[in-house]
């Protein structure tokens, strides 16, 4: 078994694996990441191979602190304001790469920008400090599947294809980071996420433009791709679940249902719902289930990111 409880010894070992060009799955506050040294092209390529990503989407680079970020990318004034407010934490900034960044071109998919974040999870911080290299890490799931919020999810998806899985318990936020593009004149929201959009707008002092459908496809906006998807079909805004479906409920008023039922938050709390979203989708994704029926979820605060993930989970699947 390649899962290790994330104590000091395991973190030291994981740092060595990363420096040697290996793959380490590690906890962050959002979801578990599949990490590799962002300066080694071979290591970054192994991420794509292991996830089974059909294309080279650009990845998020994780850095230990803001000073380290400045070695790789140019922090604009807005970027500095957002970093001061939310780092370490679940915010990713897309910035212009420095010419001498040393980052592999593959992490940026050949673009002159790079997505960077300083994670807030103590084990992620410890790993980055130990490794002494910037760590490229997408979510540690097979491409297109539900993001992992605990070590067992990673093991189920990637198993022995990862050199080491650091077990740091369940993720505390449960939704991927919010991605804000600060690389150009106009600040844009590329992915709603763990920090609610209105908080970002409050911090920069103006409304932010949303790039519709840009998640996971920064080069071809407008395409809604299947993603974050369980094997079972997903049906949204369901008031009355059908026979054979599993029900993903939200709030206190749950319709009677003869079948699997999980409630994201019985008290209608969106933060609690975010924490439970991906684990609940995995749990309801049973062989006999005809579809996962999801009750309506308000689109306010974290609800925007939750509905973004659910809409993608419900999108038509590509034929393989
Ligand atoms: O919470 C998170 O962000 C997690 C944890 C592990 O940190 N990571 C994560 O990574 O969600 P991933 O690879 O699943 O998502 C990366 C997203 C993609 O939507 C990608 O298109 C976007 O970041 N991205 C990366 N580099 C970019 C760039 N230079 N320009 C625009 N978008 C970029
Ligand atoms: Mg992902």
UniProtKB/TrEMBL annotation:
Residues 8-195 form the YrdC-like domain. It comes from Candidatus Filomicrobium marinum. It is found in: Cytoplasm. It catalyses: L-threonine + hydrogencarbonate + ATP = L-threonylcarbamoyladenylate + diphosphate + H2O. Its EC number is 2.7.7.87. One of its GO terms (molecular function) is tRNA binding. This is Threonylcarbamoyl-AMP synthase. InterPro entries: DHBP_synth_RibB-like_a/b_dom (IPR017945), Sua5-like_dom (IPR006070), Sua5/YwlC_C (IPR038385), Sua5_C (IPR005145), T(6)A37_SUA5 (IPR010923), TC-AMP_synthase_SUA5 (IPR050156). Pfam families: Sua5_C, Sua5_yciO_yrdC. PROSITE patterns: YRDC (PS51163). ATP binds at residues 53, 57, 113, 139, 147, 191, 228. L-threonine binds at residues 30, 62, 117, 137, 177. It is an enzyme of class 2 (transferase). Belongs to the SUA5 family. GO terms for cellular component: cytoplasm. Required for the formation of a threonylcarbamoyl group on adenosine at position 37 (t(6)A37) in tRNAs that read codons beginning with adenine. It comes from the Bacteria. GO terms for biological process: regulation of translational fidelity; tRNA processing. Keywords: ATP-binding, Cytoplasm, Nucleotide-binding, Nucleotidyltransferase, Transferase, tRNA processing.
């Amino acid at each position: 078994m390649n899962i290790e409880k994330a104590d000091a010894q395991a973190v030291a070992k994981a740092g060595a694996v990363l420096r040697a060009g290996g793959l380490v799955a590690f906890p962050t506050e959002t979801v578990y990441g599949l990490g590799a040294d962002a300066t080694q092209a071979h290591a970054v390529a192994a991420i794509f191979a292991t996830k089974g990503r059909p294309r080279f989407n650009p990845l998020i680079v994780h850095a230990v602190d803001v000073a380290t970020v400045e070695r790789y990318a140019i922090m604009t004034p807005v970027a500095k304001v957002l970093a001061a407010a939310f780092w370490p934490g679940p915010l990713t900034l897309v910035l212009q790469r420095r010419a001498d960044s040393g980052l592999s071109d593959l992490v940026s998919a050949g673009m002159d920008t790079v997505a960077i974040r300083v994670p807030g999870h103590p084990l992620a911080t410890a790993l980055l400090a130990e490794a002494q290299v910037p760590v490229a890490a997408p979510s540690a799931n097979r491409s297109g599947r539900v993001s992992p919020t605990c070590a067992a999810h990673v093991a189920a998806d990637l198993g022995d294809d990862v050199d080491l899985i650091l077990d740091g318990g369940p993720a505390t936020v449960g939704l991927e980071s919010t991605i804000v593009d600060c690389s150009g004149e106009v600040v844009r929201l590329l992915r709603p996420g763990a920090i609610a959009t209105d908080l970002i707008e409050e911090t920069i002092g103006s409304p932010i433009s949303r790039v519709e459908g840009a998640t996971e496809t920064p080069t071809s906006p407008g395409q809604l791709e299947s993603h974050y998807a369980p094997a079972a079909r997903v049906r949204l805004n369901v008031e009355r679940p059908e026979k054979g479906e599993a029900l993903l409920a939200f709030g206190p008023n749950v319709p009677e249902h003869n079948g699997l039922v999980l409630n994201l938050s019985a008290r209608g709390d969106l933060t609690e719902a975010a924490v439970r979203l991906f684990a609940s989708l995995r749990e309801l994704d049973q062989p006999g289930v005809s579809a996962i029926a999801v009750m309506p979820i308000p689109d306010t605060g974290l609800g925007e990111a939750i509905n973004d993930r659910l809409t993608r989970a419900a999108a038509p699947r590509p034929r393989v």
